[in-house]
Target: Propionate 3-nitronate monooxygenase
Amino acid sequence: MDWGNELTRLLNVKYPIIQAPMLGVGTPQMVAAATRAETLGSLPLGDLPAEECKAKIQKTNAISKQPFAVNIFVHKLPEIDDSLRKDYKETRKFLEKLASEHQLEVDFPMLEEIKLTDYHDQIEVIIEEEVKIFSFTFGNLDSESIEKLKRNKTILIGTCTSFKEAKELEASGIDIICLQGTGAGGHRGSFDEDDHSEIDGFSILSEIYEKVNIPIIYAGGIHNAKTLLAVRDLGAQGFQVGSLLLGSKESNLPEFAKERLREAKDEELILTKSFSGRSARGINNTFIKAMEASGNILPYPYQNKLTKALRKSANTNQNTEFLSLWTGQVLPEFSGTSTTDILKHLISEVNNYKPKPQIN
Ligand SMILES: Cc1cc2nc3c(=O)[nH]c(=O)nc-3n(C[C@H](O)[C@H](O)[C@H](O)COP(=O)(O)O)c2cc1C
Model:
């Protein structure tokens, strides 16, 4: 297959395959390994404080010879008012009880102790460190940030989950769209958590391809030649793979969590707001069931900040029943080999692909 297209030129890679940004899973080593497969590596920075972003970018620069993308969360923060204060107290109390019933020692933060990241500080670091490819999710950047990054000749990749969001990204001057299909692992990148599209990614992809004039990366369920070629036929020029790399050598997931993923069954997959306050796809467990039944889920990022200590304790105790284990609707084998080998295998599968004869 001839892989060269507008994206390979814009991103300066041989293959328009993107190692998905995955906060908590992606590492500088994973980015470097993706670039060794001549694909684009993405360093997830989520809502990490600016100093941590800087250290991670510098570490990645030290081990990766090729340019890479960085990825952050652009979320509009809800105001702290009396109603949020009251809900926070209740959810915190509920979690304290739940943790102690399950022998988990957790020190849950008070609302006043929570530190939130302003994405503008992260952008300052990204410009300072001269990162030239920048992707974001959970919303669109404000126009000043877009202008600033463009003056710095940064290529901008905006995540969307609907036709409306894709049009908004295009109108604001974003260079590339990353369309996240409904089956994608991890958080849905919708702009508005309470108004997100349920339309299947394939339907949106063909519509965006017809009516939006910037290149499209597709994310969600790409795990072999057939799925990659199917989204290419619908108009995608780039192919973002996440779940396929969760078990890899460079994934930050501990071995017990990788094992849990390898045992997962389709019927265990769920879309839930219970860990963060935003919808995310992963494996159902005791925590999700209890949290959903409580009806006490706070809005993002407060739910996320509140459950962080619980997830940390579950990790220390190797307890997958209280850990967020995100993965997409298609469960791959979660190979434990290197990210480079997994991506090279995907490329070679596409290059040697022979369609199955049609049944007459
Ligand atoms: C564990 C995990 C963490 C993720 N974290 C992020 C993130 O930090 N930023 C982001 O834009 N997308 C994130 N995503 C979504 C991926 O970038 C991508 O859209 C998705 O993995 C594609 O679907 P797939 O998992 O079926 O390949 C995450 C996905 C997973 C599985």
